[in-house]
Every structure is written in structure tokens, then in C-alpha cells.
Design a protein that fits this description.
The complex is a heterodimer of chains A (268) and B (589). Chain A contains five helices and ten strands. In chain A, strands 3-2-1-5-8 form a five-stranded mixed sheet. In chain A, strand 1 and strand 2 form a beta hairpin. The longest helix of chain A is centred in the first third of the chain and has 34 residues. By secondary structure, chain B is mainly alpha-helical. Classes of the chains: A alpha+beta (268), B mainly alpha (589).
Chain lengths: 268, 589
């Protein structure tokens, strides 16, 4: 029985670890400035936790087999523990866990504490059951007014977010269902939700942030590779949650300008 | 400790009288239905949880079937729609967390064995105890009713985030079903508050002579700390739930700002969706420990007993339980790193969360230290205790990923989180319950469970649960969001479908294996070999009394305690264990 236990614990450990080490399933390709930092911190955490995992499961399997009850077993040592050992592993664990945390917090601070840099692309993201809309302020650089009274989700785009066209600043606002961003330029996001909480999740950008009704949440990130990236909703928002998705198209600055100009032209 | 009452060979205090002596009831109703006996109430809780776990497991099976065969036409049920899938996950989570993980370890085993282990004739407030069970029962009936009302069960998840949970028009199931869901939880909170008061009072006031706090079995410590957590946490959830009911039905705006659902302006303004999250998780995180601490207590008790060795670091184990309980109230914000909460507060919550890993690690080291150098007997209860340690390590080590806000960016609300909490709060806690069932079954029913089928059940369940829940970590890393009924809409999820299919197959096998347990349980109740009073050669007080214990637990005597709870392999003792009430043997604890 001791051997069977050792076998199953070690086998479970082996298979679990194998798929992590072989990277059979892994984080999606990272294509933003944050991705490298986040992935490094992930890899570091996973190596440290992996070592602890293998050591603890290995010891558990080994001990139950080695100290099984048998005729020639050694006499059990009557002991209530060892204070010195307790102190050692308490301190070691505390240093490991808290240290790991402090190393990662640097990235968090950079991403969240500072406002977007000047010259970033302002985009307003609006989540509603079950679609994402993206608003660009147009040539005046100002987002025009919106009103809940004007919101009409069935009409889509400008009407869906309730754009108030009587506001001069709203006249050149562009609202789309696909997000376009120029590569290597920071995007200055304003996240909103009109009905329930949604979560704006772009796996390749290593970006996730809830969009909360009643709040406007400012965030920023910088895409670094041209390409098409899927946007998901990561907060349960109702029956269509699984199909609330969108597309982020990261293009060159030139293509971005062309695209935005074409949208403006459509509005005239 | 030197024996003082050496004239009594049974270690009982001949002068003491049972302070809560009440005659054993004779009518069926007072004996088995509205019983005041903590042992009957414990069994009532246990069987309620057993019924609930099968309901919850059946719901999870339907979910796993739907994920893989979305258009399957199931007999009697028909096709599961995406919104039905969300109702299934809501009810699965709620039933499992409240009516299984909170009910069986504390209400079931705690009720039955806490008074006996401290040498008390009953709980401090037997009537309150009865009330708290029947209140829990009503809560269970109310939540089951949500399946059968118009619109069906709610779809807002067990976490019930507002405004989704606060608006009747936010989705199917958000009408009467959601009201029943909240009402059930509120009733459950009341029941748990009554239970918590009873447990705390019993531990503080009804310990037998010589049963100092530092001689209590670690199971008692775990139930005690759990009760304190329950007392502090359930009151908050109760209040939060009442506010949610007001928002839903009386037009208040605690949680709902001005929102527009499907083009319609709702009549709310100024509320905060984040308020619900703060209140919910202020309860919700301690709840994780409410579910797991009793399992830790059981694991400690069993690892020591079946390794024939005193628990390694008893005091450290007690302090670790206290540490976990204390820190457990300071970490709720780690559920909210992506919520829009201040990113500065994430720092504090994150550090506290990492800190709570320390007492958890101490426990693991001490369990390994207990086995090491012992003489391990592999009876079924011990297999489950060993499985508990393995699962606790596996589920625990994904914690430091999620505790880092920066790693929460890719991982929050993905299958990684689901894998993490299922391993540690779900499966590990359930292994604690299995261990407790196999261990205390002889005392509760006077018969032994079948060892061979117990082993088969153990190996299938251990391998099966790992096969279901370990892959969730891979899915989450690859970005699969949780609570998705289908993976067909997003191109990047396509390559994960085969792994999801494997998990569904593993769930079939694992769920089938649970019938081995149920059959063993009921078969052994009537046909199992007769058990002696102390079949595991254990040391705590429940093993000093008759099997099953008489109405007042100790047959008119009050035990006197001379030793700590885990005196195994004491040098110079006649046997390899010294009972807690054994006055003859001198030990240092």
C-alpha cells in the first residue's frame, strides 16, 4: 500500500509538472510592452512554486513508503517537534512569498499608478450585454457628451453608446465595434459599462480590467506587434457572456490614420 | 502531568455530574427528527450535506456535458441552453459552498464530535442547536425551490455580483429565482450564526476537568476557530443579502448606479457595484477557511494517529490555525484586483495574502514532519488524510500566482482560478470529509466500513479529481475565461477543446466512483463487521466511550483528562498510545 501511494503521488506530480515544463498549454503570445514583464514574473513564480511542488509531493510519497508499518520498522521516535525547524521554515517561507510579491509589484505600479503618457491614443471602451464598443474623439481630441436616454443597443455604434449629437464635441466622435490601434503607441483607455459589470480582456496584450457601471476607469497599455487580437469578456454578464467578444486590430500609424479618416468621412 | 485521581482506573471523575443531564427521549420524533442530542443533529447535518453534494455533483456533470456536447438532447432534461448552463454553475457553486463545504465539516462532524472530544455531555445550547439545523434545512429547501419557479434558477454565479444580481431584467432566472437564492443564503447565515455561538460557548465552557485549551485535539481547535470566523463573516453576508433584496424589490440603490439594460433606463442611481463585492468577499474569503480548517484539523488528527507519532509541532499548528483565521479577514481584496478598486490597496491585500501562505506552509511542513519517522498504517481514513495533504499542497501553490496583482491580469476570472479553488477548497475539503467519515464511522454506527472498497474509492477519486482539476490551470494560462458555456466563439480557445473533453471524461469516472462510497456507507451501516470501542487505537476522548456513544456521551461519568491529544509511542508506556484520560501513565504533555 505504501508503494502504491508513492506511485500515485509521484505519477500525479510527474504528469502535472510535465505539461507545465513542456509548455503544452501556455500563455498566449504576448504583444504588448507589459507582456515581457508579466511573463517573466509568471515564469519566476512558476519555477519557484514548481520546485516547492515537486519537493513537497516527492517527500510525501517517499515518507509514506519509507515509514510504512512493517515488521522491521525502526522504533517510532517520541517527539513533539522541533522549535528551531519551525522558525527556520516560517522565516524561509515568509521571505520567499513576500519577496516574490515585491518583485512583481514594480510592474503593477508602472502599469497602474502613473497616468497615460502624453501623445497616447484616447479610446473609450463601453461594455454592454453583449457587445464592446470603441469610441475615438475625432480631430478635436474631445469626447462629446453621451446620454442614457439616447442609448439604443439595437441600432449599434453611436446610438448604442447614446452619443448626444447636439454636443459640438460629439460631432466628430467615431464609434465602432472593432478596435483599431496604432502599433507602439500607448492607448489611453476609459472603460465604461452601461448595464452590468463586464471585463475587458485582451489575452495577447496581457490586459484585463473590469468595466463597471457608474465608474469610468482610466488605464493604458502599449501594443508592440501588428496583428489581429481577440477581445473577450471575462466577467459573468448574463446569458450571452461566452459570445461577448470583439477584435483588436493593431496596425501601423499610417494605416490607423487612414482608417480613422475613412470613418470620419463616412459620418459626413 | 502526574495522575491525581489514580484511584479511578477509568480516569473518570466520580464526583462530577453531567451539567446538562437530560433524559434520553423516547418518542421517534424527539429522538430522530426534533432531537436535542448533538449526535443526532450532527448526523442530520451530515445527511443533509450528503444529499446536497449529490445534487451539486449532478449539476456539475450536466455542466461538463454541455461544454462538450452543447446540443445533446438529454433524457428528461432536454437540451441545456447557455443560460441554463449559467444557472447550473450558480446553483452548483452555492449548494456546494454553503450546504456541503460549510455544513458537513462543521455542522456534521463538529456537532457530533466536538462535545465528545472535550468531554462534554452535549452542546452548550441544545435547543439552539436543533434550531440551527432546521433553519439550515429550510434554507436548503428554499434554494432547491429556485429550480422550479418561472424563469428558473438565477444565472449570476455563486458570487452574485451586482448589478447583474440586482436587476430583475438582467437575464432569465433573475426574477423570483434570484430572490429565492438570496433568501436561502440569508436563512443559511442565520443558522450559521446560531451554530457558531453554540460552538464557541461549548469550547469555552464545557471542557472536562484537565482538558486545558492546549490539550484540545486539533480538530477541536479547527472547529473553534471556524466558529469564530463564521460568527464574524456570516453577519456581514446576511446584511449584504438583505440590502440586495431591497435593491431588487423596493427600489433602493445600494449596489446599482444609473444603468441602462437593453435600452431601458432602470430606476436606480448612485449605488456602488463594488460595495457588494467588498461585503461579499469580506464574508467570502473567510468562508474559504470555514470550509478548509476542519479538514486541516481532521488531517492533523489522522496523520498523528495512523503514523503512531505525536503531531509535529502541536503549538505551531494551533498558532497557524489562529494566524490563518486572523489573516483570513484581511485578504478579501485579492478577489478584486481587476474590479476597479484602487490599485494602491492591491499592494496591501497582496502582501497580506502572501503572508497567509506562511501559516499554511507551516501546517504542511508539520504534517510531513509527523509522518517522517512514524510507523504508518494504511487504513482508509489515513489514505484520505494523505490525499488531503497532497491536494492541499497542489491547490495551495497556485495561490501565490493569484495573490500577485500583476499575474492576476492574465489569470483572474480564468479557469486557473477555478482549478485553484476546486483543488484546495473543494476537493481537499471533501477529502477531509471522506477521511472523517471513514475514521468516525465505527464510532457513529458501531460498524466498520469496507476497507477494500474504501481503497478502490480512494485511488479512483484521487486520480480522478487531479485529472479534472489540474488541467484547469493549463486552460486558465491559455486564457480560457471561466463561466463560458461554449468555447466556439473565440478562435484562440479552439485548441483547448480536446483538453476540456478529457476533463469531462475524467468527471464521468470520478462521479461514478462516488457511488462506491455511498454503497459502502449504507451497506456497512447494516452489514459491516462490528466495531470495537477504539478500532484505530486512537487517544482522544470519543474513543474512551461506548460505540455508539450513549445519550449523554459518557454514560453518567465525566471524563478527567491527564494528557495532550496525541500521545503515541510514549517511551515506557505499556502500549504505543496513551489515552487522554489515562491516569496511570506519566507523560510530559
Amino acid at each position: 500500500m505504501g508503494l502504491a501511494l508513492l506511485a500515485i503521488i509521484w505519477l500525479i506530480t510527474f504528469f502535472s509538472t510535465y505539461f507545465f515544463v513542456a509548455k503544452t498549454w501556455w500563455l498566449p503570445h504576448g504583444a504588448s510592452t507589459a507582456a515581457a514583464f508579466i511573463d517573466n514574473q509568471f515564469a519566476l513564480t512558476y519555477v519557484l512554486m514548481g520546485v516547492v511542488f515537486v519537493a513537497a509531493q516527492g517527500a510525501l510519497g517517499l515518507f509514506v513508503w519509507q515509514y510504512r508499518d512493517r515488521a522491521d520498522a525502526k522504533k517510532v521516535e517520541y517527539s513533539h517537534g522541533n522549535v528551531k525547524l519551525e522558525v527556520v521554515w516560517t522565516v524561509l517561507t515568509a521571505v520567499l512569498f513576500v519577496g516574490l510579491n515585491l518583485m512583481g509589484s514594480n510592474v503593477w505600479a508602472r502599469e497602474r499608478f502613473a497616468p497615460a503618457e502624453s501623445g497616447s491614443v484616447p479610446v473609450e471602451v463601453t461594455g454592454m450585454q453583449f457587445a464592446w464598443y470603441f469610441r475615438y474623439p475625432g480631430a478635436d481630441g474631445k469626447f462629446g457628451a453621451t446620454s442614457p436616454k439616447l442609448m439604443d443597443p439595437s441600432a449599434g455604434n453611436e446610438a448604442a453608446v447614446g452619443l448626444d449629437t447636439s454636443d459640438p464635441a460629439a460631432k466628430d466622435d467615431v464609434v465602432t465595434g472593432t478596435m483599431y490601434l496604432p502599433v507602439n503607441r500607448q492607448v489611453d483607455l476609459r472603460l465604461r459599462a452601461v448595464d452590468v459589470i463586464h471585463s475587458f480582456f485582451v489575452p495577447n496584450m496581457r490586459f484585463k480590467q473590469d468595466a463597471v457601471p457608474g465608474l469610468e476607469i482610466r488605464m493604458h497599455f502599449t501594443p508592440t506587434e501588428v496583428g489581429d487580437y481577440e477581445i473577450a469578456c471575462a466577467e459573468l454578464c448574463g446569458l450571452g457572456h461566452y459570445k461577448m467578444h470583439g477584435m483588436l486590430k493593431v496596425v501601423s500609424q499610417e494605416d490607423f490614420d487612414k482608417w480613422l479618416a475613412a470613418r470620419e468621412a463616412e459620418k459626413q | 502531568m502526574v495522575a491525581q485521581d489514580a484511584h479511578d482506573p477509568h480516569g473518570n471523575d466520580p464526583h462530577a455530574h453531567a451539567i446538562h443531564a437530560h433524559a434520553a427521549p423516547t418518542s421517534f420524533i424527539r429522538k430522530y427528527i426534533f432531537s436535542l442530542d448533538h449526535k443526532v443533529i450532527g448526523l442530520q447535518y451530515y445527511f443533509l450535506a450528503l444529499a446536497a453534494v449529490f445534487v451539486g455533483m449532478f449539476l456539475s456533470l450536466l455542466m461538463r456535458i454541455h461544454m462538450i456536447w452543447p446540443t445533446a438532447n438529454l433524457p428528461l432534461i432536454g437540451e441545456i441552453k447557455p443560460e441554463t448552463y449559467l444557472s447550473l454553475l450558480t446553483m452548483h457553486g452555492t449548494i456546494m459552498v454553503f450546504f456541503v463545504l460549510t455544513t458537513a465539516p462543521q455542522g456534521g462532524f463538529g456537532n457530533y464530535f466536538l462535545p465528545i472530544q472535550i468531554g462534554a455531555p452535549d452542546m452548550a445550547f441544545p435547543v439552539l442547536n436543533m434550531l440551527s439545523f432546521w433553519t439550515t434545512f429550510i434554507a436548503f429547501m428554499v434554494i432547491l425551490a429556485a429550480f422550479f419557479v418561472t424563469g428558473g434558477a438565477p444565472l449570476h454565479g455563486w458570487t452574485g455580483y451586482a448589478p447583474l444580481s440586482a436587476l430583475q431584467s438582467a437575464g432569465p432566472g433573475e426574477q423570483l429565482g434570484a430572490d429565492l437564492w438570496i433568501t436561502s443564503i440569508a436563512i443559511f447565515c442565520v443558522a450559521s450564526l446560531m451554530g457558531a455561538l453554540n460552538f464557541i460557548t461549548t469550547v469555552l465552557d464545557l471542557r472536562a476537568k484537565g482538558m486545558t485549551m492546549m490539550r484540545m485535539p486539533l480538530t477541536v481547535w479547527a472547529w473553534f476557530i471556524t466558529a469564530i470566523l463564521g460568527l464574524l463573516a456570516f453577519g456581514v453576508l446576511l446584511s449584504a443579502g438583505i440590502l440586495l433584496l431591497l435593491d431588487r424589490n423596493l427600489g433602493t440603490s445600494f449596489y446599482v448606479p444609473l444603468v441602462v439594460v437593453n435600452g431601458q433606463i432602470m430606476g436606480h442611481k448612485g449605488g456602488s457595484p463594488l460595495l457588494w463585492q467588498h461585503l461579499f468577499w469580506f464574508f467570502g474569503h473567510p468562508e474559504v477557511y470555514i470550509a478548509i480548517l476542519p479538514g486541516m484539523g481532521v488531517a492533523s488528527q489522522l496523520l498523528s494517529t495512523f503514523s503512531r507519532k505525536p503531531i509535529f509541532g502541536y503549538k505551531a499548528m494551533v498558532y497557524a490555525l489562529m494566524g490563518i483565521g486572523f489573516l483570513g479577514f484581511m485578504v478579501w481584496g485579492h478577489h478584486m484586483f481587476m474590479s476597479g478598486m484602487s490599485p494602491y490597496s492591491a499592494f496591501a491585500f497582496s502582501i497580506m495574502t502572501m503572508a497567509i501562505g506562511v501559516p499554511s506552509a507551516i501546517k504542511t511542513f508539520n504534517w510531513l514532519g509527523t509522518i517522517r519517522g512514524g510507523r504508518v498504517r494504511f487504513q482508509t481514513p489515513m489514505l484520505y488524510a494523505i490525499g488531503f495533504v497532497s491536494l492541499f499542497v497542489s491547490g495551495g501553490l497556485s495561490g501565490p500566482f493569484l495573490a500577485q496583482p500583476v499575474l492576476d491580469i492574465p489569470l483572474h476570472d480564468t479557469a486557473f482560478v477555478v482549478g485553484h479553488f476546486h483543488l484546495i477548497m473543494g476537493v481537499a475539503a471533501i477529502f477531509g470529509m471522506f477521511a472523517a467519515t471513514y475514521y468516525w464511522f465505527p464510532k457513529m454506527f458501531g460498524r466498520m466500513m469496507n476497507e477494500k472498497w474504501g481503497r478502490v474509492h480512494f485511488f479512483l477519486t484521487l486520480a480522478g479529481t487531479y485529472a479534472i482539476f489540474m488541467p484547469m490551470h493549463y486552460l486558465g494560462m491559455a486564457g480560457q475565461p471561466r463561466r463560458y458555456s461554449q468555447f466556439t466563439e473565440l478562435a484562440y480557445l479552439q485548441h483547448l477543446i480536446p483538453l476540456n473533453r478529457f476533463m469531462t471524461y475524467a468527471a464521468f469516472v470520478t462521479i461514478a466512483a462516488q457511488f462506491i462510497f455511498v454503497i459502502n456507507l449504507f451497506w456497512s451501516m447494516f452489514k459491516g463487521p462490528k466495531a470495537s470501542d477504539n478500532p484505530w487505537e486512537a487517544t482522544t476522548l470519543e474513543w474512551t466511550t461506548a460505540t455508539p456513544p450513549p445519550h449523554d456521551n459518557f454514560g453518567g461519568r465525566t471524563p478527567v483528562v491527564y494528557h495532550g491529544p496525541y500521545e503515541y509511542s510514549v517511551t515506557g508506556a505499556p502500549k504505543d498510545y496513551v489515552m487522554q484520560n489515562d491516569p496511570a501513565t506519566v507523560t510530559s504533555h
